[in-house]
Every structure is written in C-alpha cells, then in structure tokens.
## 1
Amino acid sequence: MAYILELRDICKHFGNVLANDHINLKVEKGTVHSIVGENGAGKTTLMNILYGLYKQTAGEIFVDGSEVDIESPSDAIDLGIGMIHQHFKLIPAMTVAENVMLGIEPTKGKVFLDLKKINGSTLEISNKYGLAVNPKSMVADISVGIRQRVEILKALYRNANVLILDEPTALLTPQESEDLFRIIERLKKDGKTILFISHKLKEIMQISDVITVLRDGKVVDTVKKANTDEVHLARLMVGRDVFLKPAPKTKKIGEPILRVENLSAVNEYHHPVLTNVTFDVCSGEILGIAGVDGNGQTELVRALIGLQPITQGKISLKGTEITHLSVKKMRSAGIGVIPEDRLQEGLVEDFSVEENLFLGLQRNQPFSNGNKLDWNAVHKNADSLVKTFDIRTPNIEHKAHLLSGGNQQKIIVAREIYHAPDTIIAAQPTRGLDIAATDFVHEQLIKQRDSGKAVLLLSLSLDEIMLLSTRIAVIYKGTIVAVVNKDAVTPEDLGLMMLGGSYEHISA
Amino acid sequence: MLGIRKFFLKRQPVFITIIAIVLAFFVVGLILAATGRNPFNAVYYFARGAFGNVMNTTDTISRVIPLTIAGIAFLVGAQSSVFNVGIEGQLLLGAMASAIVGYIVKLPFYLHLPLMLLAGALVGGLYGLIPAWLKTRRKVNEILSTIMLNYPATYLTHFLVLKVIPIEGVVPATPFIEDSARLPLLIPGSQLHAGVFIMILVVIFAYYLLYKTSLGYEMRAVGYNRVAARFHGIPVEKRMNFAFFLSGALAGLAGAVEVAGVHYRFLDQFSPGYGFDSITVALVGLLNPFGVIISATLFGALKTGILEMSVYSGIPRQLTTLINGIVVLFVAAKDILGGWYARIFRGKNTYEAEKEISQ
Amino acid sequence: MNLNWADALKAIFTLTLLTSTIRVSISIILAGMGEMLTERSGVLNIGVEGTMLMGALAAALGSYFTGSPWIGLIAAGLTGMLIGLLFSFIAITLRSNQSITGLAIYLLCVGLSGYLLQIIFEHGGNSPKVNTLPMLHFAFLEKIPLLNAIFNDQSAIVIPVLLLPIIMYVLFYRTPWGSWLRAAGENPKALAVVGKNPVRIRYVATLCGSFLAGIGGAYLSISQTSLFSENMVAGRGFIALSAVIFGGVRPFGVFLACVFFGFMDALQKTLQTVIPDTIIPRELFMSLPYLLTLLVLAGFIKKSGGPADIGNPYLKESR
C-alpha cells in the first residue's frame, strides 16, 4: 500500500527545546487522518514543517514514496500539500475569487486580469467539490464558515491532494462544524487526503479513519478509529504514570473568599466566551482550573480583574460584590494576579527590578502618600523581596528585561504574593520556566495556601494542576463542566472532560 | 575582558546615542568634504562662534532656553509614548497668546509676567488636547495628526499678526508688550534673559514629576508598556491625555518665554524651527531631563556657531537642518544600532553573557 | 462693506479658475498618486514633502547644468527613488517606526536641499532661472472652452498626469500586480503563504511612489516656476498626504481630493483680488486641507478605510 505521505523520524528543535521528537507518520491516500494531542504536544509545529513554514532539524519527508525537501509554502503547494490555518490567511477587502486565485491569477496577455475566468474558475471548482460560495462576495461580508470554504478552495485550486486542517472547528458554530464534516466526507470521496488536527474528542471520533496521538512531542500511538473510543484516546493523550513529587497535603480549608456566580461574557464578535461560570475558592485551598488553551481561561482571568466586559453574573470577594469595579479598585480589593503573559502583562521590561516590584502599588502606602513617591520604601521593599524570593539580579536598579525568564517571574510572584491580602490568581505561572523556577513557584503557591489565602490556579499542564490543587474545576468551551476533589479523579478522567468527552460515568 | 563588556552593555543607551551622534557628524563631515568645504575649519569657527566670547556665549544660552523647554515638552510626551510633533504649532500659539496678554492689559510685574506665561502655556496645552482626543478616542496616529495641526496653527498666528492685530511699525508683529510682562536681562546689552531660570525650573519640574511622583511613574509605565499598565489599574487614556496637555503646555511656555525675554512681542516667523529641533534635542538627550539640557546646549551652540561659521568659512547655515535630519535618522535607526552594538559586545555566546549579567 | 456678491462670484468662477486649479494641482496629484501607491502596499511615508523638495532641487540642477528640463525631470525622478530607497531600507528592512523614519527623512531633505542650494549656487534663497518644460498649446482646442481651460497653456506633463488616476485604477484592480499590491497592504501573511514576497512588493511600491513624488517636486521648479527656492514645496507634500487619506487611498478618490485641495489653493488666490481678506481670510483656505483630513481621521467624515496593515512592519515567520 503506497502512502501518500510519510514522515520518518522528524525532529524539530527551537533552541534547546525539542518540539518534535522522532515523529513517524504514515498517511494513506483517501483517508481522514487525525493528529491529536494536548497543547504543546507538537501538532502545529509538525504541520508547519509539512507546509514549509519551518524546516525540520532532522528526519525525512516522503510524498508518494519519493523523498522531498520542503523549503517554503511554494514547495509544499507544488507537492500537492495545502494548509487551512486556524487563523485564516484571507484578504477581507478582496472578493472570494480574488482570494482563491491570489498569486496565480489567470491573465489576458500576461498583463490584465481575466476577471471572467477568475470568477468562472472559482465557480467551477466550487461546484466540483460542492463547496458553495459566491465568487463575487467580499470576504469581509461572509461568515466564518464560508471563509473556511474559501480557504479550502484556495488549496484545491492549487491542486492539493493532501489538505491539512488545523483546529478547523475552533471558530465555527456547531452547525458550521457539521457542514464542514460533510465537506470532508465529500472530499474524501473525491480522493483527497485530510490531515485533521484537533483536541476535541467527539469530532475526532466522528470524522477520523486513523488517529495519531502526540504527547510531549512524541508519537504515543496510531490507531484505527474502529479500535478506539473517547476514553482510550483521552488516556493516550493525557496518560500520566509518575508525578514529579508529592505535594504537602492541604491543612485547613476555611470560608469561601472568592465567589463567582453565573459569569457570562462575549467577545467582540458577540460569540460567547464564558457561559454561566460558577465556582468559589475558599481560604486555605488551591482551586485548579484545568482546560485546553482557548476554552475561556484568558477571558476568565480578565473578567476577574475587570478587563473583560461581562454580560451577566456576579463576582464577590469576602462577601462584597466587586463585579463592575474598575481594574484599580478590584485589585485594591485584595486580589493579586500572576498574569498569563509575563512580559506583556506582568512586567514593564524597561523598568528596573525595584520599579517592577511595586507596580500597581504606586499610589499606596508605604510607597507613596498618594502623590509623592517614597524611594526609601521602594528600595527597602525591593531589597527585602529580592532576598526572600531569591531573585537573581546584580542589583535592584537592573532593568527587568536583562533578567532570565525565571527571575522575571519571581519578580511578579514576589510582588503579587507579598501584597495580596487574601486572594491570588495564578494564570500559567510556570509557563516557559525551568525546573528550578517551576519548583520555586509551586513552593510559593503552597505556602500561600497554607497561610490561609485563596488561590485560583489556571494551567495548561495537567501535571501542575494535579500536583497543586485541592479541588479541580474543568473548563471547556467557556463553561465549568465539573468541580471535583483532587483525590476523586484520575488524569484520564480530567483529560476526558477537558477534551469534551462524555463523563457521566465519573462521580463528582 | 568581561568586565569591560559589562561596562559597555550596561550603559548601552548612552553609548548608542553617542555613537549615533558621532556617526551623524561623520556623515556630515563627509558631505562637507564632498562639497569642497573643510570640516575641520568648520569645527573651529563653530566653536569660536558658540563660545568664543561673552557675547557669543550669552547668545548661545539664549538659544538653549527655548530648545530646552521645547525639548522637555517633547520628552514629557515621549515618556508616555506620546510623540508630539506639533510642538512648533503649540509654541507659536502659546507665544501669540502671551504676546496678546502682554500688551492688552496693564498689571503689576508680579502678576503680569506670570499671567502671560500662564496664558501661553494654557493655550499650548489646550491645542495639545486635540491630538489627545484624536488618539485616545479615535485611534489616530499622533505623529500624523500633530504634524497636520502645525499648519492651521501657523496660519492662524500669521493671520492674526498680519490682519487682525494692529501693527506698530514696519515689521509684521504684535505691539510691544508692557514692561511689566518682560523678563529682565541678566547681562545688559546681551541676549541673556531671566528665562534661564524658567528653563532650569522646567527641567527640575520634569525630573521631579517623572521620577519622584506616582503620577510620573504611571506615565512612564504607560509609555513603556501600555498593556501591563492597564493590567495594573493605571488609567492609560487619562495619563496619555495628560501627557499631551503637558507637552503642549510646555511648548506654549517655550513660545511665551521667547516673547517675554527676547522679542517682547509676537514676531511673525520668529521660530527658526524650534519645534522640530526639540525632537532632536530630546532624542539625543535620551529622553532624560538633564540629558536634554546637555543636548540643547549642543544644538544651541550649533545654531550660534553656524552663524559665525557661515560668515567666515563659506559653509551654509542650512547645515543645522541637515545635521538635524541626519541625527534623527540615526537615532531613529537606534534600535538597529542597538542590535549591532549588543552583538559586538556580547560576542558569540549571547546566552553566557546574559547569564553573567543577571547573576 | 461695499461688495456686490453677484459680481464677485461671477468674477471668481470663470474658466480661468479651472485652468489655475489644474496648474496648481499637478504637483499635488503626482505626489498624491505616488503616496497612494506606497500606502496601498502597507507603508506610510510621511516624508513625501522632503522627497518632493529634493526632486525640485534635482530638476532645477539638471535643467541648469544641461539646459534640458527633461534631463531635470529624469534627475528628479531618480532622486526621488534614491530617497525612497533610504526610507525603505530603514522602515521596511530594518523595521523602524515608519512615522519617525518619515519625519527624519523630511528633516534630512529640508536640510540637505537648503545646504546644497547654498553650496552650489553660492547664494541662498533661490537658484538662478532654469529652462522649463514646454507648455502645451493646441490651436484646435481654442474652440472648445472647457478643454481649452484644462489642457491649453498647461505644462507638457499635464496629459500623463491627468491620466494617472486611470492608470492607477487599472493597475490596482485589473492587473495581478495590483492584487498583490493590495494584498501586501491588507494582510501580508496571506501573500506569503501563496509564495509571494510582501517585502519586495513594498519596496517597489515605495520606490515608485517616491519617483512620482520627485517628479511632483520637479514640476514646481521647472514648470510652475522656473527656479528652485528654499522650502518651495511649502507643505504640498503634507497636503498630498492629506489627500491620500481624504480620498480613501483609492485612485479616483485621491485624484479628486488632490484637485479639490488644488482648487482651494487656486480659489484663495483668486478670491484675494475680489473679496477683501477680512471677510474670508486666505489662511482659512490654506488650513482647510489639514482640517478636513483631521475630520476624516477622526471619523466624522466617513471615507472608506485604507489598507488594513498600513504602518506595520512585516515580520517573516521564523524558521
């Protein structure tokens, strides 16, 4: 059986991070081959290599049995590989037909565009594959679902035989997703091969013929759909054998401090990003929110500090409602936030270490009387925090951008922990940190928990969630699907819930 | 060896600016040579012209005054990432307002002078709120809007001085301001006036505001990282609006000081491009208040020195604008200079050097 | 105030006004079309004024030293391209802030042109008179008043200039390069994934745009007048910039905006002779282009938006 696509021992390094580790993949022609895994598993990197946006550090690619060298998207297109990116590469100000033909427009006499042919060929190919579009519509005017069809047509027009769909349902409504699956079936019948990248169990089970599971950059297994089910897949994607080290048990849990009730929000396109989110965090506990990236975590944190407009719901701190306060007031109310994006949100890189160590507190005692800064207090605070948290810097006047990622995070952690009276929200607190720094952050969070604070932890790493949390909540598509005690659940159960699988069999 | 590297790396911004200036002057020297003029000659006459005798030195200082105040005006905006290229217009409007207040009322000295300076600052500040609104509410790029706004401002003052306000004498100008609105001369017969003290006050004010107050901290946070500032509860738009206002007000003040100290009236086209020079002065001064004084001295000296130089060595006075342009060009490309600078001093193993610095 | 408005209006709105409008608009149209081309590719070049100034100087020099204004014209275009190259290198390749770079180029050109003028001609202010481009005169057009006003007694380049908007329109919307140009300005990544290079397109657009700006400046020194004087562009570059915004970065829109601003200029000159300045000051007319542009920028006057990606440096995805 000839494979239309084969990847042998593909490796990709980014610096000293190994994103793809000896990936082996054999794709049969005319199948829907899904590549699944959690965030950071290496799926997108692999696809980018296949499409010529990255170059593999090692390994070979074979198309139709012959070894090939893919140096750029043009090469990939020439080999019949087309990619439909998660974030569409379309020009809203141009028509559907113009977008489909971009770069290879048919001309009259090599100079003028053959408009008739542009529209005609687009219509032709759209009919051929049953992808109804109006060639003359402006892309700006059409829905997301139709835009995706245009992307597919783009690839088909360039004679793609292998279509890579990267998280195609991420931006679609359920109805549009169904339409997409119908299109995929049709394409299969026409002899096309589909590489389907996803982390959503239900659709993987619905659409795939073969499924390859990636984890931590490696291939875990490749299975035929008939031989697997949601639970099995979840276990493959997320399966854990060994924890890093046992965490100290929770000492005493007190009253709920942070209470979130029925929180809902929409984004700028009026799509819901949070739906009836309800949970509370008690003093002395760590509530870990587990979920795959893009399921509402970012929006939740932003809503909790006052940066995300809310359509309904209530947020209260120690009984007092803080839902519609300004950012400043919400922070003053007693919440410390370790933000997801260390450099963009957590620090001012061009400020010195000591200046960063009181960011957000520049109007409070002891740093200021409201208007005038007391630099002595600033120095003292900085010296003390640098010592306590072991922040490696030659001096406190050093500019923050010169520090390593771990030390930068220490600044943020030190600042937020030290000055937050009762609640800490930690969003991806150990992202991009090495083991020593990660351990440090974990230690700090546990310490804060034990001192009676309420800690809300959001993380993409199931390991981290399982390690630190007292209770665990799973967020999927903007809703909290379950809140369970850490001891009552396995990683596979969590994986199942995070990936949208059915979980009725798990007791809460 | 590593010690020397660290020394240079730590002071990267200073050294890069010095390199930018040196490169700029080098290029200027090349242009001079290429057009048949002697660059070294130029330097000699320039130095003589700027500081050769007391008269020249006071002349230099009298130019340093508006350059410093206007430079601080730009600096204050830039520290909050507000690039006010409309200083020229705000300066003219401020000068006009102060000239009018100066001649229209009769008040005792201790009221009149502050009032006319205040009028200038206020008008400049208010004019600066227009691009502020455009930026914070309509996302209009302020470099574009402030440049555009220079023109109506220039035309308005031109119109006022030529057609509305009665002219005494031949030159297009407003009537002379009352004695009570004038800044006294420090050295009789020279150009040096008490505006020097205002200049020093402005510098100290800027330093104090930016580095000793919570407000200044917030403005700088907004300038360096708007997202983080917002994340920590700093009202970004409010701070930017304030930066626009303050920048315009200082520009207006610079104009008012020129009226009160040098011309004693609004003289049509009295500004030899202080507005654009202020940008160069501020950038070369590394956006630091004290750096601005040093850089203003350099450029002030350039202006007086050039006069002497053009008379004696046949080098056109347009050289200043040329130098201006080249310096801004190099400073604009500073980020890239920064990249090369870092590569030279960090050597091949960036990671090692970085570790060294942070440990 | 004794003013017969009927007489005044009759005196103003004659065909002569049309002639002067066209004459005055030519340099703005050239610079405007050039800047439109540049902006369509996603590059904002506010140094147009400087480019025009250097073009004016180059044209005067070319005409002075060779006696032929056509050589001057070519010199101006090439000079424009050179300035455009400098700008492109810093703004596109080095990815510096486009506005600051444009500002620097403007300052540089103002200084350099004044300096060179002084050096070459040994006295400031103006160059000596130079040969100018020939004027058109078609006897047969005298019979058709409207066409007579537009084409007769105008510079020779009036015909290609008036054809520019049509050429640009065809280029933008009827050729493949036009599609790629627009794509580069809207979403360069979309262009990259189909194998075209947005950086190259932006370079070409900026160079061509600067070429036209240089010619626009040349018109001032070897046609509208017959010498180069310091700072003679006098804000026309910024007016052209305004026209591009006001015209929505589209060929006919920008063309009309340029003509409109030129009309304002011609109108205020005509008005001066008829309506005393105290009723409608000419400074108001001179400010109008800028005020109108600000209104457009502020969104009070709805114009179709320009390219989505304008002003953003393009960063190729890392390998």
Note: The interface with chain B takes residues 305, 307, 326-332, 337, 339, 341, 344-351, 355, 359-360, 362-363, 367-368, 370-373, 375, 392-394, 398, 402-404, 407 of chain A (CB under 8 Å).
## 2
Amino acid sequence: MIINYSPQLRSDALTLSKDGDILTINGVEIDFEPLESGTKLPSDVCQGYSPFLLEAQRTSSGELEITLLLPHGKNAPTAALFPQPITPGDGPVEVPA
Amino acid sequence: MQGSPTFLTGPTGLALLAAPTAADARSAIGAMANTAPEITTNANGTAYRWPNGLQICTGNGVAQAPTFQYGSLWAALVATWTYPAAFATTPVAIGSIIGTTGRWINFNPSVLLLDYAQYSFSYQSVSMTSKLLAIGTYTP
C-alpha cells in the first residue's frame, strides 16, 4: 500500500494504522480488499468513508494507492508541508505533523 | 467580514442574508490593506489569512486538454485541488488557463477541495495548466 498525503492547514489531526488492505483512519476502519485492479473509488464514495480519504485506487499491477488529507499546524515542519509518499508496514503509521 | 450579517425576511417567511453593502466591502478591503496576512505555503499552494476571517488560497491546476465530447462542448477529465488551508464554508473559486483564451474552466467547490475541468467549443489535444484561486472565510 502506497499512501500519498495532501497537506492542509487545519486544526484537527490524523491517526492511522494499517493491517493488510485495511486502513484505520481516526478510528474508522476501511477495508480496501474488494477494490479490483485498475479501478478507482469515486471521490464522493471516499468522502463518505472518511473526510480524510481523498482518493483510493488499485493499479493494474495490483498496488493499492491511497491519498489522505494531512492536517498540519501553522509552524509545521517541511515533512508535513511537503510530504513524501510512504509504503507503511502493518501497525500504527507515523504521520508527519 | 466585520460585524454581524443582516437577515431580512422574504415573502415566504424564509430568512434572507442581506447582500454586503459598500461599507462592508470597504471594511474588508481596509482590513486587507492595513493588516499583513498570515501566509502558509505547502504542497497544495499558498494560503493568506487575515485576522478578520478572510482567507484566500492560490494553487496550480494540473495540465488538462478538452478531448471528451459532451454535446457541442469538449471537456477534460475532472481534476481535484485540495486547498492549502481549510475553509469554514464553501468558498468562491475562479481560475485562469495559461496559454489561450479559447478555453474556460468550470468549478465545483466544497469546503475541503475544488473539482475543476477545462472546457472548449472544439477538440483540443494540447494540455494546458491553470492558476486557481478560492476566496472565503476560515475559523480564526
């Protein structure tokens, strides 16, 4: 699973954990296993799962690619302002802040 | 931007929000002119926040080409811009396409992000980028 972050100055926070194709976003568990290769979830469906879920697609090679809203504060570090994609292992995911 | 909004009662009894007056506009512009905004830049663009709650966000749109026909119009695939800073309510969005006057952009803004697509009256295969701008309020 590849996670892309889309940074936004805002007051809330993001917590994440991963278990296979299941991603838990701020306590909401989302199972992406049914997402077939070469398909993408419509953005309104993503927003229905979580306001932090911007995009979810599985590439033709079967890789799951997720884009999440990344909240940050006024004086955030570069890692939060210009975040890089990550490929996390299972367990809690460290979020740039 | 300053003071409380004025509500009027319409013929159906529903409350109507009175349009901003010239004094409101002068007040907002005065606040902008006299106060330096707080500026935040991230991967999604730049946000300007004034203490009175006014927020302006700018960003770059992805390169698009109107190659899909809808009736007599041609459209590009819809792209999404996540604002660099959160708005309190849905902002007003505008934008310009760099390199031509023969296309325009349609917008569907929400509080979180902006969906946009370039349109034209003819098939155009050349991809062009755009500059996007959203104006609204934030919660100080």
Note: The mean pLDDT of chain A is 95.
